[in-house]
Amino acid sequence: MNYIHRFRDVFIIILFLLGVPTSQHRFMIHPPPMGGELNKYTTRNYDLDVPMTQWPGDFPCKGALEKGVGQPVLSYKPGKTYQMKMQAQGANHDGGSCQISLSFDKGGSWKVIKSILGNCPRNPAIDFDATSFTIPHDTPEGEAYFAWTWFNNEGNREMYMNCAHITVANTATKRSYHPEF
């Protein structure tokens, strides 16, 4: 009788494991995030698609600021519109809400430049999605961190965050950093 119970328990565990989705979720691919496969300036982080789990270790930027931010990967101009792209692998959590933010003080504070309340990503059933954002006209010039955060809609309440090291450059007029941004 003991063998039957053990077999049943092992069988249930195997069925459970086969039915559980992988830990792969959404993550930013453009601009190339710190630790991302396409960012040649930072060490690869294979957990960019995993929700943040440790406070404060994962915040901000999945701990990338402590591991080294490398060189800026892109330059943006104030007043211009760009695309941020994300990739999905596995659980889509029926979308959720996203924000795009900038930090000019090494992640000490963040200024949200776009919020998408619900329906983010727009089509959770596809592998790639993009959203446009505009760098505000009054954004100061200099190096910054670009952040994409995602709060899922379905399942466990999870937060995801990927960051990219960028430059804001305006060749027409120079702006310096000011905390009021």
TrEMBL record:
Gene3D superfamilies from the UniProt entry: 2.70.50.70
Signal peptide: 1-25
Keywords: Signal
UniProt keyword ATP-binding, yes or no: no
Designated name of the protein: Endoglucanase
Origin organism lineage: Eukaryota, Fungi, Dikarya, Ascomycota, Pezizomycotina
